[in-house]
Amino acid sequence: MGSALALVMPGMAAAQTPIAVGQNLQGALASSDPRLDDGAHYRCYRLQTQPGMRYRVEMRSDAFDTYLGLGKQCAEVSETDDDGAGGTNSRIDFTGDGQTWLIRANSLSGGETGSFVLSVSDLGPVPVVRTTAIEFGQSLQGVLTSTDAVAEDESYFDCYVFTGRPKEPVVVEMRSGEFDAYTAVYRGGVCDGEQLAVDDDSGGGTDSRLETTLPASGAYSIRANSLGSGEVGAYRITLTGGAAVIPERTFPPVITYFQAMSDVLTVGARMTLDEIARQIGSDGDVDVIVAGHADPAEGSIDFAIALSQRRANVVRNYLIERGVSASVITTEAFGASRPVADGSGSLPENRRVEVSAGPGSGW
User: What are 29's strand-pairing partners?
Assistant: First the structure.
């Protein structure tokens, strides 16, 4: 699959023939059909798509080398393919947006004519990105399948989520005897967005190994996928690191608690934070760590991380309002990964923010 800008010869235009999912249309390129600027004849087909649904377009011919284009205009396509269906046949997989897409069916070389078959099939909805928690020191067995999430290059991938701290080293290794492994680390828990590191074969052979240092506290994710599109098979992924030298905490943390599903400070929490702010004052040499936590019963991994971050932010903002310098405060969000109490329901001991203060304070 690729991208291309194709120009139609002046004065020529193609009729748009409708095609529907499940159809196999017989067609033929003739010398009377419109031509591209390279002399290749083409025909244009119109497909109505549904948002979030994936489609496969194939063009096959025994008479010439096929070439497919896909876009909102036949003259200017955004995706192209020559031989993705094998041999001299073409294939494009794409995700619908609820609008009409135009399919340009042409030959690879100018002047070629002959019969062809154009088909559109339904690949189903875009798979939901399911996440799996992984911790430092863990090695997990996984399998890429055709039901996994699909990356931009049409490769399947699994998504692993972990929490980290500022300047924490991370090493990710992915090994497989069935496909060429490819890994990436992202900021956030959805395997998309800001990419911190990526690797193909630093693990030796077709295995991947990447190293990076985390920029801040919070959720991070590992995209475990193959280098090539459509590859499936078993693999093992390992997360190590987290071995940065962390200074010992100068003072034990002071804990404030929250109501279930809430990031609102209670009266008791405000009184506690008032005392912390009084002791810290505006000292610019002190380090203040504000670590937010949630209870496992409060929601999914991503929701718990977001909730714990909101709780940490509320405490940070309150301390700033009470005179603590913003430059000395660092927030961390651990979600529900570090509960201190076990039991049924949402437990107050886990719905907390821990504030640690003092020279060299840290975790």
Answer: 114
Query: How is the chain split into domains, by residue range?
Result: 16-125, 131-241, 254-358
**HEC states along 131-145?**
EEECCCCCEEEEEEC
CA–CA separation, 186 vs 195, rounded Å? 4
**Total residue count of the chain as it appears in this document:** 363
Give the pLDDT mean for 76-98: 89
Q: Which pLDDT score is estimated for 95? A: 81
Among the four given CATH numbers 2.40.110.10, 2.60.40.10, 2.60.120.380, 3.30.70.1710, the one describing domain 131-241: 2.60.120.380
State the pLDDT at residue 84. 87
Q: Which long-range contacts (C-beta less than 8 Å, at least 24 apart) are formed by 61-64? A: 61/88, 61/89, 61/114, 61/115, 61/116, 61/117, 62/114, 62/115, 63/112, 63/113, 63/114, 63/115, 63/116, 64/29, 64/88, 64/107, 64/108, 64/109, 64/112, 64/113, 64/114, 64/116
> Looking at domain 16-125, does it have CATH number 3.40.50.2300?
no
Are 43 and 14 in contact by the 8 Å Cβ rule? The answer is yes
Intrachain domains 16-125 and 131-241 with the same fold: yes
Supply 97's token pair. Answer: 């947006």
As a whole number of Å, the end-to-end CA separation of the chain is 47
Sheet with strand 352-358: strands edge to edge:
254-257, 352-358, 287-292, 329-333
Q: Are 326 and 320 in contact (CB under 8 A)?
A: yes
CATH number of 254-358: 3.30.1330.60
Question: What average pLDDT does this structure show over 143-149?
Answer: 90
For position 102, what pLDDT does the model report? 96
Q: Are 171 and 209 in contact (CB under 8 A)?
A: yes
pTM above threshold 0.90: no
List the one residue out of 332, 331, 333, 335 whose CA is nearest residue 300: 335
Q: Describe the crossing of helices 301-321 and 267-280 by its angle, rounded to 10 degrees.
A: 60
Q: In the block, which residue shows the tokens 């070629």?
A: 112
